């Protein structure tokens, strides 16, 4: 099959998306696909965030964030959280999200996501369009159904469970309408 050459861009396929909570005791949440596992000892995750995001201000102010891995059933939710800013609307209240206290940081977890990873920002790197926040992992929460006989998180098992595997996408589904999402939540 012939290939075409494109101008430089960050095409990576597939890309998993996550939901980032941040802001300590006054949390916000946004959808993010620029996420990477960047070291093992100690474990670090890095997320790239545009400076104009409300969450960028909150990550700087609180020095912490939580990586919440959504389930496929939360697809529309990820569109909403990635299309509306917490500056204008309390997304956690509007989407009726259930929060849970973290173990080692002040920012809460999204209780309905099967995996949550608490991070403290260790350093940041300016990368023109984005800031790369490098987080030291403080604690990992995983639904018990994902554990193997030894009590470790079994990735293969997570992949076999439709509810637990992540969502792969780079942009909101098209067309996405936040007003329809809000009405859906209200009608619950
Ligand atoms: C699938 C998807 C992936 C996204 N990935 C990123 C990302 O990696 N970094 C980023 O800064 N914004 C990303 N966004 C955009 C933010 O989620 C969006 O601008 C959001 O409204 C910011 O919310 P906030 O202003 O409350 O922080 C993504 C949006 C979608 C739908």
Keywords:
Pnp Oxidase, Chain A; binds flavin mononucleotide; two-stranded antiparallel ribbon; 10 strands; 188 residues; 5 helices; alpha+beta; 32% strand; eight-stranded antiparallel sheet; globular
List the helices and strands and how they pair.
Blueprint: E1 16-22, E2 28-32, E3 35-39, E4 44-49, H1 54-62, E5 64-69, H2 75-81, H3 91-94, E6 99-100, E7 109-110, E8 115-127, E9 130-142, H4 155-160, E10 167-168, H5 178-186
Antiparallel strand pairs: 1-2, 1-5, 1-10, 3-4, 4-9, 5-8, 6-7, 8-9
Bound molecules: flavin mononucleotide.
Residues 17, 28, 30-34, 48-50, 53-55, 79, 82-87, 169-172 line the site of flavin mononucleotide.
Q: What's this, in brief?
A:
The protein has helices at residues 54-62, 75-81, 91-94, 155-160, 178-186; strands at residues 16-22, 28-32, 35-39, 44-49, 64-69, 99-100, 109-110, 115-127, 130-142, 167-168. With 188 residues, it is an alpha+beta fold. A hairpin with a 2-residue loop joins strand 8 and strand 9.
């Amino acid at each position: 099959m012939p290939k075409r050459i494109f101008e430089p861009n960050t095409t990576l396929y597939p890309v998993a998306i996550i939901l980032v909570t941040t802001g300590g005791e006054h949390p916000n949440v946004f959808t993010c696909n620029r996420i990477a596992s960047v070291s093992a000892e100690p474990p670090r995750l890095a997320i790239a965030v545009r400076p104009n995001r409300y969450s960028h201000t909150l990550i700087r102010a609180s020095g912490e964030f939580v990586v919440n891995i959504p389930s496929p059933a939360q697809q529309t939710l990820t569109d909403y959280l990635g299309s509306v800013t917490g500056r204008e609307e309390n997304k956690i209240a509007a989407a009726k999200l259930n929060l849970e206290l973290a173990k080692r940081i002040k920012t809460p977890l999204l209780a309905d996501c099967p995996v949550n990873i608490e991070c403290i920002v260790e350093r940041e790197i300016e990368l023109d369009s984005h800031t790369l926040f490098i987080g030291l992992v403080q604690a990992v929460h995983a639904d018990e159904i994902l554990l193997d006989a030894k009590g470790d998180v079994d990735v293969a098992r997570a992949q076999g469970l439709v509810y637990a595997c992540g969502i792969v996408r780079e942009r909101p589904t098209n067309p996405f309408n936040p007003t329809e999402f809000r009405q859906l939540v209200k009608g619950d």
